[in-house]
Amino acid sequence: MIYDLLKKLVETNTVHDNETELALYLADYFKDNADKIELFGEGKRKNIIAYFGNLNSKNILLFSGHLDTVSALETDWNTDPFVLTKLDGLLYARGTADMKGGIVAAIFAILEAKKAGLLNDKLVIFVGSADEETGADSSLGCKKVVEHLINENIIPTGVIIPEPNAKKDHLKINLGHRGLIWLRCQSEGTVVHSGLLKKEDNAILKMSKFIEAVYSLFPKEPTKENGVPSSSCRVTYINSGTEQGFKRTPSNCVADLDIRISPLEKNENILAQVKAIAKKFEITINMIKNTPAASISKDEKIVKVITEALKESNISYELGYASPTCDAHWFIGYNIPAINGMGATGGNPHAANEYILFDSIEDRIKTFKKIIEKW
Ligand SMILES: [Zn+2]
Hints:
There is one protein chain. The protein folds into 2 domains: 2-177 and 294-374, Aminopeptidase, CATH 3.40.630.10; 179-291, Alpha-Beta Plaits (2-Layer Sandwich). The model has no long low-confidence stretch (mean pLDDT 96). Helix 1 (2-11) crosses helix 3 and helix 3 (96-115) crosses helix 9. It is an alpha+beta fold. The strands form 4 sheets. Strands 1, 2, 3, 6, 7, 8, 15, 16 and 17 form a 9-stranded mixed β-sheet that branches. It has a 4-stranded antiparallel β-sheet with strand order 4-5-19-18, covered by helices on one side. A 4-stranded antiparallel β-sheet has the order 12-13-9-14. It is built from 9 helices and 19 strands. The structure holds zinc ion.
């Protein structure tokens, strides 16, 4: 049963698209057990919200997972990325670890809790959302879900986003995640004969000084201090000149910067500093993406309930922060405490030969059920 649902989820291709097919499948899967089901969004990019338990309760725990995956270059894989394949005790397919395994665990935990009569005085919500894998800044997915819940005055008191967990027997509870700013930067210069004794107005030099100055805002090597990942910057692309050669200086230079913001920092602060440097070196910047960093206090109920449940089950854990971004900021932005992580355990998310340890799903079902029981 658990295997069958995982198989259906990963064998439905949701590479940056087509979440509606899975949302419809899950709506049918839930039809005998859910107390309310909503499907909404646009075209092939729909979200599902399924409600279980007491619809009038204000004691609301929500599990949220993104239904989309990144692409898979089939030639790099040892197996078909869209067929769940068992090999040496591991299950391979795109999306197994990130994060359809975690979604299966959440679903089974909720259904088992409902069957056991644990939801009479509380409401547990499952969200399967669209379009997270483009940088968690989409207006089609989790943003729509959270705004809908707020409009309906359904305010979760805790949220778990079961993104992959690196270790099988040691859970990482992320109190937040880094933010992300993508900047396309451009400098202008004057085209002149490069052999003349003229004062230089060089687009490449301006850009290189700008990049060095921006880099100086960040630690030389990204670090983790007390579990908190630092902010970081990477130049990922540069282009200048009209042709390769020596005769003339270029009219412009374009560079892309991928900046990641520490969970305890604010995107606006970093952005203001980068803008000041851009002004100094006459660089125009175009913001391509701006996903906020977000974090919650370890004193929130969601953290306390999870850690109590883990202690009672003798499961080791640590509190930390995720380096990549995720959907948690949509909830945290509305003061809804959300943690991410503690999903199923596997490897190679976003890479070739992504896999999952099947028994980690079974382990997480037990853990999530206990959390639901204590909620
Ligand atoms: Zn993910």
